[in-house]
Amino acid sequence: MSEESLHIDDTMVDMHRTKTYTFDNMEGWKGYRTLRPGLGIYHDIRRRLPFYWSDIKDGANYRTVAGTIRIYFVNVLPALAFVLDMDRRTDGFYGVNEGLLSSVLAALVFSVLSAQPITIVGITGLISLFNYTIYDIVKIYDGALYPQVMVWTGIWAAIFHWAMAIFNACDYMRYVTDFSSESFGMYVGIIYCIKGVEELVALFDFGTIEGYLSIIIAIMFFGTVYALVRIGNSTLWKPWVRGLLADYAFPISTLFWVGFSHIPGRLKNAQLIKLPITRAFYPTVSRSWLIDFWTLDVKWVFVCMPLGFLTMLLFYYDHNVSSITAQAKQYPLKKPGGFHWDFFLLGCTTFIAAILGLPFPNGLVPQAPVHTDSLTIYETTLKKLKTDDGEEGEIRRPHVEAVEVKEQRISHLLMCLALVGTMTGPLLVVLSTIPRALFAGVFFVVGWGSIESNDIVRKSGYLISEARFVQPSEPLTRVRKSKIILYVGWQIFGIVATVAISQTIAAIGFPILIIALIPLRWKLFPLWFSAEELAAMDALTADNEVVLASLGGAPQMPEDVKKEGGRDEKGETARETEATEERQRRMSPQR
């Protein structure tokens, strides 16, 4: 380990010892978060500020280059896809320029000022859903009011963001478990796949040939990205070769399939619909960048208050979960995070985006770990498993371990500069060569990535697996299948309800359903499941020490709370102790 790494380790130990942030076991008024405003923000800044210079110096390495290119494509392609969705559903109010400027704003603020610079912030599919649902509501009364309504929605949302950050409410994210975060991840993945299908269906309006060719390009783009990423996780070729293919899966696939759509002959004659662009650095529609929100009637200003609160609820869960997953325990992070300060900054970007008429940026959940993963150095070693076939009988398997993460701000800032360059006229012309079908493929890539890696899929697979082929070490073998079905059933119920409401004009209420899963898990599940069963199926989503330091520490799980009778001297039954150990085992890094 390098001297710099050792220095970071020593600094971290000292910071955790002298700069502890918690409300647990506090007596009197000190135990109330609302009575100590700004404490979380103060500790976030105090913990992270000593690392600011190293955040700059540590950017001088190859992983920064690979990370910049990877997150640029992972950010800009979905952002443009979501903008196309909003453009189609809001009568053209949002366009490419608004989407790019929103991404630039978020990247600039969070790369320079945030306590968690590896968390990528941009335009998500959920804010797209939110925006056009509000448009559908406003259009019932007067569609011309939509820009001002969105401004006031953003202003109220910013105020609620600031209040939540100042009064330390981000601490409650420590109560989020995999039960709700997996449900949310599956919901997001399904919504993205639905968006991809909707985009392809819309392209049939321009002709049958164009529609079917669009389907081919979308599916093949998805397949190419998926194959290249899978090669990166395989044992084909040398590690550096498959690493390059995985790092540049998006740009390779984009360049190839955009070029494919321009092959002379029948393909080019199909007249595929391309990405629409307008004048560089100007709004898509004829207006100034500053929206005259002060002209809106007072009644509408207060109508926007609940809309702003729902926006804040969405960002409270979406952004914070994205930050948690970007700093999951499988990544050997050394530098501390800061949820309160970053949520305050998110309120600032929401306010600025609102008055400029931009989509509100927030954390990108499916793409959240991509930046961290691209900055991570992995080592692949050979693991030999002996068999019963004699001395030569063995099974060889690769063992991949994350040994270091290049934590820095430079890749995020370079992505910001690349986005600014994309807003210029020449590069907008380049963007206009991309067929819209490719963005449907982007929806499939992002959506399927969230579905395939979801633990709901793993649990469902276990339920239908033949028993003799299940590994004895599988934690689920200690849980009755009826209990697994009950657990997964509640997750599926939450997903179905949220997806269903998202297809109606009541879609703006879906954040309430997502948030409601948290108290359901904490209040009712301990009555239905034992501590051992929950330890095998669930765990805290925030499982990294550097993350929990900003959230006030790990909470005590309700199923582990002391009960009457049968205690050892520490106040735990043997079954509770075993459950706690199992939960800690599940939270350990695995790859």
Estimate the strand proportion: under 5%
Overall number of strands? 4
Q: What is the overall shape?
A: globular
State Rg.
25 Å
Question: Which features would summarize this protein structure in a list?
Answer:
mainly alpha; two-stranded antiparallel sheet; 24 helices; 61% helix; disordered N terminus; HCO3_transpt-like_TM_dom; transmembrane helix; membrane; HCO3_transpt_euk
Please specify the SSE layout and strand pairing.
Layout: H1 3-18, H2 39-48, H3 52-57, H4 62-89, H5 96-113, E1 121-122, H6 125-141, H7 146-166, H8 178-203, H9 208-232, H10 239-247, H11 249-261, H12 266-269, H13 298-326, H14 339-356, E2 362-363, H15 368-374, E3 376-386, E4 394-405, H16 410-422, H17 425-431, H18 436-452, H19 455-463, H20 481-502, H21 510-528, H22 531-537, H23 545-548, H24 574-587
Antiparallel strand pairs: 1-2, 3-4
Biased composition (Basic and acidic residues): 559-585
GO molecular function: solute:inorganic anion antiporter activity
Domain Bicarbonate transporter-like transmembrane: 39-204, 213-540
